[in-house]
């Protein structure tokens, strides 16, 4: 960055006998706000206000401001220094002040160039140019290198940096240069604009149709395989459900135990007899009472009756 000196010279009158006081400040654009003090010189001493970085940027141009030169020097100039400055010199009873405006402009940065539209013949194409930095107003200008002027049919916008071609053709192909400039500088960028032939529409259509048919065929094959798999599974489950499974062989028959035979042979024997006109049933071994017991008559046996469980009584 460059540096700048804000001039401020003074000449005391013979009546000004007071102590010399010099002040530099920035006038606030808002009248309700206080001005910002920058540097001052009082009693042979220099005072700086603000941060240390600001102190390194500002200084009195003269080594001794008391000799009539109170100019202010600003190093590392940037757009942030744009403001209205005031120099005030006081030596009682005299006092005077001077205001000046400083406008710091930044030159454009190297712009960026790019193409939109595919560079196909017959299609619209736009060339763009833009600087990221730079004081306004910025002006953009397109021109073609080593191939003559830009053909008719192209319109450029100096504010946005766009060069628009409504119907691209081979006559527009070439190297283009874009310049971005303002009051303090200029920068440029270049690009190579091509004119590409569009693809064969018939081939594109045929390719699209073939691709679509191929996708449909793949889909049908997938559906057929899925249907076959599900049908095979269903048929297998149906056949499996109709199969007659062989049961396990029955257990071997057990021989009739002697206990069972003995139990059957030892079934109680039943004898029916009539005693004193009362029918008595005796279970157990048959016993023929004595004809002389207790003076009763001999027992009269009645015919055997059939029992549903044991058969005829013996």
Automatic annotation (TrEMBL):
- Could you give one GO CC term from the UniProt record? basolateral plasma membrane
The membrane-spanning stretches of this chain are 202-228
Q: Where is the Ig-like domain?
A: 1-103, 108-192
Q: Where is this region: Disordered?
A: 240-267, 283-314
Return the InterPro entries for the record: EJ_Adhesion_Regulator, Ig-like_dom, Ig-like_dom_sf, Ig-like_fold, Ig_sub, Ig_sub2, Ig_V-set
Mind telling me which Gene3D superfamilies this protein's record contains? Answer: Immunoglobulins
Q: What is the protein named? A: Ig-like domain-containing protein
Source organism per UniProt: Oreochromis aureus
